[in-house]
């Protein structure tokens, strides 16, 4: 059984990006610019933003965080986004979610210029993905694909089942797996899917993005399958808080051919692909 190491793969990706930025910097005339917007004081968001900013600086980007109070209005937040859209040296804009109560995240995301949408969540970029056209892709699904490539896991002709239909992970991941050149046959499942266990057992590649701790049991996994666990759940076990995925890792690992751990699997790839998207946007915007 193979452990798909997202931490090591993300480190390789960041190292390659650092080298690429350094080599292209003389032609571009400036470093890639990433602006992160953080509204409110959600503790988890604070940690995520610090990690993103640190990773961006390490690969040679100009990264900054705009911290806004939880009382920020919808118009004020949209005005901040408009200002960043107009800044020539900002190549990527990331709006950290969730937003404080009362703010409309979808409306804010729609305000981000598609060419700077390094989270790949604007209607434009989601539409480009659905059409199979080039564009900035959602980071977590793109990170899953990078992991599959890193470990030479074929997708063509394989049956892939994606459990979870969010616009952040499930739907775009299904589109990427089924895209021309990837050529998996994809079934997208959700909480109301009939015979969900049977659908999961049919999968050569089983991807879960449910947010339900250890929901996928060993009897839902086909022997020899590849299991991609996108879920990150905080639970209490033996009196201490731990992180676990949507899959019962210990039991599933005895049946599958390859599996991502939680933590250390898909999670680190999300930030790596955010950086990759920012470099991609930078190259397009500076014509290099």
How is this fold's topology laid out?
Blueprint: E1 2-3, H1 6-28, E2 33-39, H2 43-58, E3 62-68, H3 74-86, E4 92-95, H4 105-111, H5 123-130, H6 139-150, E5 159-163, H7 170-178, E6 185-189, H8 196-201, E7 205-208, E8 226-229, E9 233-237, E10 240-244, H9 249-253, E11 258-259, H10 267-285
Parallel strand pairs: 1-11, 2-3, 2-4, 5-6, 5-7, 7-8, 8-11
Antiparallel strand pairs: 9-10
Helix pairs in contact: 1-10, 2-10, 6-7, 6-10
Explain this structure.
The protein is globular and about 50 Å long. With 288 residues, it is α/β, with parallel strands linked by helices. 43% of the residues are buried. Helix 6 (139-150) packs across helix 7 (170-178) and helix 6 packs across helix 10 (267-285). It has a six-stranded parallel beta sheet with strand order 1-11-8-7-5-6. A three-stranded parallel beta sheet has the order 3-2-4, sandwiched between helices. Strands 9-10 form a two-stranded antiparallel sheet. It contains ten helices and eleven strands. It has helices at 6-28, 43-58, 74-86, 105-111, 123-130, 139-150, 170-178, 196-201, 249-253, 267-285, and strands spanning 2-3, 33-39, 62-68, 92-95, 159-163, 185-189, 205-208, 226-229, 233-237, 240-244, 258-259. Strand 9 and strand 10 (240-244) form a beta hairpin.
Q: Mind telling me the C-alpha Rg?
A: 19 Å
> In terms of per-residue confidence, which ranges show pLDDT below 50 for 5 or more consecutive residues?
none
Distance between the termini: 42 Å
What structural class do the secondary elements suggest? alpha/beta
Task: Characterize the quaternary organization of these chains.
Answer: single chain
Strand order in the largest sheet: 1-11-8-7-5-6
- Per DSSP E runs of 2 or more residues, the count of β-strands stands at 11
Average pLDDT, rounded to a whole number, is 96
């Amino acid at each position: 059984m193979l452990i798909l190491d997202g931490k090591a793969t993300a480190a390789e990706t960041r190292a390659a990006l650092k080298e690429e930025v350094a080599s292209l910097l003389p032609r571009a005339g400036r470093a890639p610019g990433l602006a992160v917007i953080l509204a409110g004081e959600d503790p988890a968001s604070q940690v995520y933003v610090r990690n993103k900013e640190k990773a961006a600086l390490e690969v040679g980007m100009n990264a900054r965080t705009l911290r806004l109070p939880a009382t920020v209005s919808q118009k004020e937040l949209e005005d901040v986004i408009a200002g960043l859209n107009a800044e020539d040296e900002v190549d990527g804009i990331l709006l950290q979610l969730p937003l404080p109560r009362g703010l409309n995240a979808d409306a804010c995301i729609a305000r981000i210029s598609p060419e700077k949408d390094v989270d790949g969540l604007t209607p434009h970029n989601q539409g480009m993905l659905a059409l199979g056209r080039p564009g900035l892709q959602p980071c977590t699904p793109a990170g899953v694909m990078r992991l599959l490539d890193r470990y030479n896991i074929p997708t063509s002709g394989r049956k892939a089942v994606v459990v979870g239909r969010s616009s952040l992970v499930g739907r775009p991941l299904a589109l990427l797996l089924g895209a021309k050149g990837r050529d998996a046959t994809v079934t997208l499942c959700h909480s109301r899917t009939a015979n969900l266990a049977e659908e999961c057992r049919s999968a050569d590649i089983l991807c879960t993005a449910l947010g339900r701790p250890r929901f996928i049991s060993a009897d839902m996994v086909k022997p020899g399958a590849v299991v991609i666990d996108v879920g990150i759940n905080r639970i209490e076990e033996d009196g201490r808080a731990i992180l676990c995925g949507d899959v019962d890792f210990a039991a599933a690992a005895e049946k599958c051919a390859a599996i991502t751990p939680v933590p250390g699997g898909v999670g680190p790839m999300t930030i790596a692909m955010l950086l990759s998207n920012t470099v991609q946007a930078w190259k397009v915007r500076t014509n290099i």
